[in-house]
Amino acid sequence: MAAAAVSSNPRNVDEIFKDNIARRAVLLRALTKDVVDFYSQCDAFAVHSDCWLLFVSFYFGARLNPNERYSSFFQQFDSAFSLF
């Protein structure tokens, strides 16, 4: 599976959402398929990984202008995270 091209400094709602989805996919892969490698490279933080994903996304979202932030950012993440 090829990794999606994601900006390391997302600047709009769509880029932030794509960044979050890509980080989530990599984290899920590390926790399901690459467990031995993942565990040997870092401390086990699977319990807090969902909080970390939200923190990173909301950090980028805080830098948006207020119109972008409230009109689409929270709506897009609310619909995505309601699936969990």
Question: Can you describe this structure?
Answer:
The structure is a single chain. The chain is 68% helix and 0% strand. It is elongated and about 45 Å long. α1 (13-32) packs antiparallel against α3 (49-62). It has helices spanning 13-32, 35-41, 49-62, 66-81. With 84 residues, it is mainly alpha-helical.
**Poorly predicted segments:** none
Q: What does the largest sheet look like? A: none
**Would you report the number of β strands?**
0
Give the amount of beta strand, in percent: under 5%
Structural class: mainly alpha
Topology summary:
Elements: H1 13-32, H2 35-41, H3 49-62, H4 66-81
What's the gist of this structure?
With 84 residues, the protein is mainly α. The chain has helices at 13-32, 35-41, 49-62, 66-81.
Identify the notable features of this structure and list them briefly.
single chain, 84 residues, mainly alpha, elongated
